[in-house]
Design brief:
CATH class: Alpha Beta
Largest sheet: 8 strands, mixed
Helix content: 25-40%
CATH architecture: Alpha-Beta Complex
Order of helices and strands: EHEEEHEEHEE
CATH superfamily: Molybdopterin biosynthesis MoaE subunit
Distance between the termini: 38 Å
Number of strands: 8
CATH topology: Aldehyde Oxidoreductase, domain 3
Structural class: alpha+beta
Radius of gyration: 16 Å
């Protein structure tokens, strides 16, 4: 069996609504698909110790992270009847209110996309070495803790 090479899921900066819309549009020709589900991770303007987050600066061990994303992808295809799946994550600075994670799954059946999407997003949060530095309005910063 041929081993697939991990894809680069990273994009510099925020993931735009045009990019997301175009990704959905491209799937209209795949008529075996009966359901799509999408997760959009958005940067929150959290208040921490009296300071408001204005952005998150994302960094990653890219080779390792792309391998982890690949492993999650392959595992999801083994567990669920998916037609296709796409994962994109931001690197660099993403402002509060902007999208930093886009996960898109498709299947012939709707129940599958709900189960698969939850599995994928939880695995990403638990296993992928992507790090976020919270940038506050006063330009101070701290490393973000995943919750």
């Amino acid at each position: 069996m041929e081993t697939k090479k991990p894809k680069n899921v990273f994009q510099e900066g925020a993931i735009t609504s045009d990019f997301i819309g175009n990704s959905i549009y491209k799937h209209q020709t795949k008529t075996s698909i009966g359901a799509h589900n999408i997760f959009l991770g958005q940067v929150r303007a959290d208040e921490i110790d009296g300071k408001t987050v204005s952005a998150i600066e994302y960094t990653a061990y890219e080779d390792m992270a792309n391998q982890k994303f690949h492993d999650i992808r392959e595992s999801a295809f083994e567990k669920f009847d998916l037609t296709c799946m796409h994962i994109y994550h931001s690197l660099g600075t993403v402002k509060a209110g902007e999208i930093c994670l886009f996960v898109f799954v498709s299947s012939p059946r709707r129940k599958v996309v709900f189960e698969a999407l939850e599995y994928i997003v939880e695995a990403i949060k638990a296993d992928v070495p992507v790090f976020g530095k919270e940038i506050f309005e006063d330009h101070s910063h701290q490393w973000k803790l995943n919750t």
